[in-house]
Write a structure and sequence with these properties.
431 residues, alpha/beta, Gyrase A, domain 2, Four Helix Bundle (Hemerythrin (Met), subunit A), Rossmann fold, 3 domains, 6-stranded mixed β-sheet, 13 helices, 12 strands, flat
Length: 431
C-alpha cells in the first residue's frame, strides 16, 4: 500500500498547519526530513530539511505506531507554521520522495475503515461531526462516531446468532431427542431484538432531521406580516416586505440555530384565491412546502383564527399578527415590526422541536433505516413461521440469517461497496 500525505488542517494562512503521513514509508520519510523522530505517542521539536539539507521549518512532530493510529498504519504528523509558503515547501519535498503520493479526499478515513479501526457507521458519524453546525448536530454525530449505533448492532447481532445456533442444533440433531425446548429462548431473543430495531427505526426520521435541519413554515393570508416576521427572526432583510398583497411569490429560506437545533424558516406566499397565474403557482408551492414542513406557524390577523385544515397539524402554532396595533387576549400575540412576542414564539418552536428530538435514534441516515427495516421484515417473518408450525425450523433459521445480513450491511461488513465512494467523497483532503 502506498504511503500517503496531505495537509490535515484547513487551507490558507494559519498559526499552525498539520501535515499527515500514513503508510509503510511514513517513518522513513519523517526521518529523512527531520533527522530523528520522537518515540511513538510523544512529540518533539525538529528542523525539517529538504533533500539538499536546506531548512524548511521548525516543526513539532508526533509519531503513531502501526496499530495505534487513526488509520491503523504508521503515522507521522508535522505541526508546522501555517504560512502558505511553508506548507507548500513541505508538501513539495514529500512529493519528491519515492513511494509517497498525495492522499485522495477521505483516504485517511477509508484506510481506518479498511484496517478495522472504524466501521461504516462510525465513518459516517465522523463525516457528520465535521459538517456539524449546531450543538444538536455535534452531539448526535459524536454519539455515532463513538460507536453508539455499532454497539447496538453488535448486541442485536449476537442475540440473533445465538438464536440461530439454537435452531441449527435442532436441525443437526433432528433424529435425536434434544433435551431442551429451544423455542422459548429463540422467541425471547427475536422479540427483544425486534423491539430494539423498531424503536431505532421509529426515531431514525427525527435523527435525520437533526442532520439536515428542521423546516418551519410561516403560513398565513397575504399582507399578514409573514415576511416581516421572517426578517425579524433572521435579524436581516431576507425577504422583501410591502403593503402590496402577493409580494412573496417564491419560498424564501433562512437557516438558523435555535438553541442548538438546525432550523430552516420558510416564508411562503400568502394563501388566498387569485386569478393571477404566477401568484397561484406561488400559493400552490406554499401549500406543498407547508405540508411537508416539520412545523407550521400560522399567522392570523384580528380575532378570527382562520387556518387551512388540510395543512394544519396538532403541534402547529397559531400566532396573532400585528400585535403592535391589534391586541388579542386569547393567544400568542406577536409583531414582526416591533419584536413583541417574537421571543415567546421562538421558545414555543424550540420546545416543540426539542420534544421531538428526545425520541431521536442513533440511526441518522436513510441507509441505516433501510438496513434496520430489512432486518425487521425478516424477523417478523421468522416470528410468524414459529407461530404457524414447529416444522419450519430451517426457514426460521434462514430468516434470521437474512436479518443478520441486514445488520452486517448496516455497519459495513457486506453490501456497501456502492456507497463507499459517495461517502468518502464528502471528506476534505487530509481526512
Amino acid at each position: 500500500m502506498d504511503t500517503i500525505f496531505a495537509q490535515a488542517t484547513a487551507r490558507g494562512k494559519s498559526g499552525v498547519a498539520v501535515i499527515r503521513l500514513s503508510g509503510p514509508a511514513a517513518l522513513s520519510a519523517g526521518t529523512r526530513m527531520a533527522g530523528t523522530l520522537p518515540n511513538p505517542r510523544k512529540s518533539g521539536l525538529r528542523r525539517l530539511c529538504d533533500g539538499n539539507g536546506r531548512v524548511l521549518d521548525h516543526a513539532l512532530i508526533m509519531v503513531f505506531a502501526h496499530g495505534h493510529s487513526f488509520t491503523g498504519e504508521d503515522v507521522v504528523e508535522f505541526h508546522v507554521h501555517g504560512g502558505i509558503a511553508v506548507v507548500n515547501a513541505v508538501l513539495a519535498c514529500l512529493s519528491e520522495m519515492p513511494g509517497l503520493r498525495l492522499a485522495e479526499p477521505g483516504e485517511f478515513t477509508r484506510r481506518a475503515l479498511e484496517n478495522g479501526c472504524l466501521d461504516l457507521t462510525e465513518v459516517e458519524g465522523l463525516a457528520d461531526l465535521i459538517e456539524a453546525e449546531t450543538e444538536a448536530q455535534r452531539r448526535q454525530a459524536e454519539r455515532v462516531f463513538a460507536g453508539a449505533l455499532s454497539g447496538k448492532a453488535d448486541v442485536w447481532r449476537d442475540d440473533l446468532i445465538h438464536a440461530m445456533s439454537l435452531l441449527e442444533a435442532t436441525i443437526d440433531f433432528a433424529d435425536e431427542d434434544v433435551p431442551i425446548d429451544v423455542m422459548p429462548d429463540v422467541r425471547l431473543r427475536l422479540a427483544r431484538t425486534l423491539q430494539g430495531l423498531k424503536r431505532e427505526s421509529a426515531g431514525a426520521l427525527v435523527a435525520e432531521r437533526i442532520r439536515h435541519g428542521f423546516e418551519v413554515a410561516i403560513v398565513g393570508a397575504p399582507n399578514v406580516g409573514k415576511s416581516t416576521l421572517l426578517n425579524r427572526l433572521a435579524g436581516r432583510d431576507a425577504a422583501i416586505t410591502s403593503d402590496v398583497a402577493g409580494t412573496t411569490r417564491d419560498v424564501i429560506e433562512v437557516r438558523m440555530d435555535l438553541n442548538g437545533l438546525p432550523v430552516t424558516l420558510l416564508d411562503t406566499a400568502g394563501l388566498r384565491e387569485t386569478d393571477d397565474h404566477v401568484e397561484s403557482l406561488g400559493i400552490d408551492l406554499a401549500r406543498r412546502r407547508a405540508q411537508s414542513a416539520d412545523l407550521r406557524v400560522f399567522l392570523v390577523e384580528g380575532s378570527k383564527c382562520q387556518v387551512s385544515p388540510e395543512i394544519y397539524f396538532p403541534d402547529d402554532i397559531i400566532a396573532y399578527a400585528k400585535a403592535d396595533i391589534i391586541n388579542n387576549n386569547n393567544g400568542l400575540n406577536i409583531s414582526g415590526l416591533t419584536g413583541l412576542g417574537v421571543d415567546e414564539l421562538v421558545r414555543s418552536i424550540t420546545q416543540i422541536l426539542e420534544n421531538r428530538v428526545a425520541g431521536a435514534a442513533t440511526a441518522t441516515r436513510l441507509r441505516h433505516k433501510t438496513a434496520i427495516d430489512r432486518a425487521i421484515d425478516h424477523l417478523t417473518e421468522a416470528q410468524d413461521r414459529i407461530d404457524q408450525a414447529s416444522d419450519l425450523t430451517e426457514l426460521v433459521s434462514a430468516d434470521i440469517l437474512h436479518a443478520i445480513h441486514g445488520l452486517d450491511s448496516l455497519i459495513g461488513r457486506v453490501d456497501v461497496e456502492d456507497v463507499l465512494d459517495r461517502i468518502f467523497s464528502q471528506f476534505c483532503l487530509g481526512k
